[in-house]
Write a structure and sequence with these properties.
about 260 residues; alpha/beta; Lyase 2-enoyl-coa Hydratase, Chain  A, domain 2; 2 domains; 6-stranded mixed β-sheet; 4-stranded mixed β-sheet; about 50% helix; about 15% strand; binds 4-(N,N-dimethylamino)cinnamoyl-COA
Length: about 260
């Protein structure tokens, strides 16, 4: 049995990252956060990887939050360092060129839901339960959850979920727009891999620039966002991938992208 806290499998342009501490429902401790930060940094620089799928080991949890037992013993300085480490992981996911898909296979609570929300989009199993129990612990979400959830689904639904500390089922999370699609538990990973394969098959530069436009555009006013999009659009015309993509269309053949 593999005992490392983070499993990494790479195949056909897709990296599957599995948080692997099922006995504690994959709770995020400082070690796994450091491993995750390092792995994401490396995967973004690995030309063989075009897209990342993130999931949790076992059939019960994606990630049931930050590790409460570790946090309970922290002093203020350690708490601050832990928070900064978690925030670096979330920001790395946003800043990396490659898309990250969350395959939420069970509980996604607190820091676990924040991790899923930092991914580009979420697929969930019918068994998934999502929520922010932080207020029941006397804290608030601290890995960007208040910001990312309100931006994704609006402040009213975000407030209901965060203020109540209640969990919602995957179907409701899908209706609310937190989750893109819900699948039977045994189908979830295959569906996430199928979409990852579709993304891996298209031009990596196009995908990277589209992610850049979406993530950064969210922090701008609409007209600045349009200008930003236009500048990224223009830069792509200096790439081989744009020549290849449009050339292949005109010549009625399959494009072969090089990511250059
Ligand atoms: N941390 C540590 N251990 C956890 C855990 C967690 N978040 N969640 C579950 N476990 C452990 C349980 O303690 C248990 O271990 P043993 O007692 O057997 O050793 C094992 O996983 C199995 O859990 P249960 O026996 O409780 O399983 P059940 O099916 O009965 O219940 C549950 C499942 C998910 C409803 C329950 O485990 C639960 O309520 N877990 C806690 C969920 C939670 O409150 N999550 C939010 C954590 S707070 C910060 C930024 C962010 C954060 C903190 C700081 N800074 C900026 C500083 C984030 C905070 C959070 O995420």
């Amino acid at each position: 049995m593999d005992t490392s806290l983070l499993l990494i499998e790479k195949n056909d342009g897709i990296a599957l990252l599995t948080i692997n501490s099922p006995k504690t429902l994959n709770a995020l401790n400082s070690t796994v956060l450091s491993e995750l930060e390092g792995a994401l940094y490396e995967l973004d620089r690995d030309d063989a990887v075009k897209v990342v799928v993130l999931t949790g080991a076992g059939d019960k949890a994606f990630v049931a939050g930050a590790d409460i037992k570790e946090m309970a013993a922290m002093n203020a300085f350690e708490g601050q360092q832990f928070g900064l480490k978690g925030q670096r992981v979330m920001l790395t996911m946003e800043k990396m060129r490659k898309p990250v898909i969350a395959a939420v296979n069970g509980y996604a609570l607190g820091g676990g839901l924040e991790l899923a929300l930092a991914c580009d989009f979420i697929y969930a199993s019918e068994k998934a339960r999502l929520g922010f129990p932080e207020v029941t612990l006397g804290i608030i979400p601290g890995f960007g959850g208040t910001q990312n959830l309100a931006r994704r689904i609006g402040s009213a639904r975000a407030s209901e979920l965060i203020f109540s500390g209640r969990m919602i089922e995957a179907s409701k999370a899908c209706t609310w727009g937190i989750v893109n699609e819900v699948f039977a538990p045994e189908e979830l990973l295959a569906k996430a891999m199928e979409t990852a394969a579709a993304i891996a098959a298209v031009g990596t530069l196009g995908v990277a620039y589209a992610k850049n436009a979406i993530v950064n555009g969210l922090n701008m006013g609409k007209e600045d966002g349009f200008r930003y999009e236009a500048s990224l659009f223009g830069v792509l015309f200096a790439t081989e991938d744009q020549k290849e993509g449009m050339g292949a269309f005109v010549e009625k053949r399959q494009a072969v992208f090089k990511g250059k």
